[in-house]
Each structure stands twice: as C-alpha cells, then as structure tokens.
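Dear support,

I submitted the protein below through the web form. The confirmation email said the job was done, but the results page showed an empty box. After a refresh the structure appeared. I'm attaching both so you can tell me whether what I see now is the final result or a partial one.
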Amino acid sequence: MPAATSQLAYSARNRDYKGVKRALQHGADVNVYEDGDNPLHWAAFWGDREIAQLLLEAGADPNLENKFGRDALEDAYREKQREVTELLELWRKKDTAELVHRGRDLMESAVRKQQPAVLKEFIDKEKHNFLMKTHVETAEVALAKILKEQERAVDKMSYAMSTHDIDGLEAAIQMAVEIISMVGPPRHPGLVEAERRLEELGLETQALQKKLKLISEADFKDAQIEVLEKHLQTVKASPLSKRLDLQPVTEKIASMQAERERLELKVKGAINTAKRAEDPTDPEVLEALENTIIEIEPMKPLKMACTTARNFLTEMKAAAETPAKGKKKK
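What the results page shows now:
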C-alpha cells in the first residue's frame, strides 16, 4: 500500500483529522480498505463528522460496504452518531456534493485572495447550512485573521498620522499595501485615509520649506525682519519642523537683528553727536548726520531709525534758517 494511502487508513482509524487531510493532499486512495473497513466507515463509527465530510468531498463512496456488509450510513445509525448520520443522508441527495464543492471553492478562493467582504457574505449566507458548517468555521478563522492583520496595519498608520511622522507613515503605508486585503478592491478606508494624510503632510512640508527658503534668500537691505521672524515661528510651531534644518535660518535672522541693532546705534550716535555739538545747526554737523542717513536710508530694517534721524535733521535745518529769537537789528 502506498505511504499516503496507508497514512489515510491509519489516521481515519485513529481520528486524526490533520493526518487524514495530509494524506489526501498527497494523493491517498480515499476508498482504501484495511481489515475490511474504509476510512469513511471509521469516521461513521467514531462519529467524526469533520473527517467524514473531508472524505466525502475528496470522493469517498458512501455506498461501499465493509466486511460486515454495511455501508457507512448503517454504521452511523448503529453507533447513534447523529451528525454523521445526517451528513450521509444529505449527501445522498442529488447535487449535494456539487453545491458543497461550489461553496467550498468560493470560500477557499476568498481566503487566497484575502477578500473579507466575500468571506463575510459567505458566512452570513451559509452559517445555518449544516453541510457548510466546516467551511463556515474555516471562513470565520480566516476572516478573523484578516481583520486582525488589517487592524494592526491601521493602528500603525493612525499612530504615525497622530504624531505627524511622515517617515513612519510612509513605512506603515508600505506595509499596508503589501497586505492583499488592504489594497482590495475595494481599497481599505484606513489605507485611503493614510495615503490622503501623507499627501497633505507632504504639501505642509513643502509650505514650510518655502518659508525657510524665503528666509535663507532674504537680503538684509530689503528684509522685513519681523515678517521673517513670524515665518520662522510658524515653522517651529509645526510638528513637521523636526524634519527640517532650522539652524541656518535661525542664525541668519539673528545676524540680521544684530546688524540692525548695530546700524541703529550708529544712527543714534550720529544724532547724539549733533545734539552735543556746540552748535547743532553747524553745516558740518548736519552734513555728517545726513551722510549717516543716506547710508541707512535704502535699508528697510532701518526705516524707523531713518525716519527719526530725518525728522531731527529737518528740525536742525529749519533752526539754522530761522534767526535767533530776540536778536535785534543794528
């Protein structure tokens, strides 16, 4: 007797479902006789409904008799094995085997293709069908596994989204798309949401990078330092800032602020020099102040300081052109 067939006979006699299944997968003769009984007789005798259906679906002949001249149904009756008795009676009806095979093939295809919707529909449709009980149980186990795998994938993507972790989200999405049931069709809603959020985060990052570029390319002469500072604060406030190098622009703004302070002190110094002069209206004193103003006037960061200096200069020029009060003509 071939090894697989011998294994089948032994497993059926010893109520070993997995052993029966392995033997059939290796091409065992499902109707083999050993000591006058075949595997289906043993399943009927023991009341092993799952093994009996496995054998029937594999082509076991329920009409074969054992050494005592009884078929499997008679043995099931004698041993009061109700489930196997019902199974064998139903199997005798026309088209039963074909209907069971068709349902089983549908279920197995859905498992292979990781189609949870098809499995759910199959379970709902066949859960009260005695002949499909074994396959419904298989479908339920497979569906639970699929849903658990989906749940893990969605949890990883959700966590990455909540922490604005683009790298983590990309990795989680990559893992998800490798799960057949996640890519569908239809595509899993959790995956769709994660892909949409990844795109949004990418656009947000680009917007932050534009702000940083604006700062890095700013020229002191035309810079609006307060606006640049607001841009930098906006970037720093974003959870995505951890992906960006902020040190260069931070240092640049600090450098601009230092340069503005230096020039403002220079202007204040020029004004104070004029105020302390013996004659603030002296043309040479006013010319020195005006030269300082001309130097800073083109620079936007010095606009306020320039306005203050220009107003003072205008006052001094006006004073120089006005005769001193109380001065009498000779």
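Response: this is the final, complete result; the empty box was a page-load delay. The chain has a mean pLDDT of 94.
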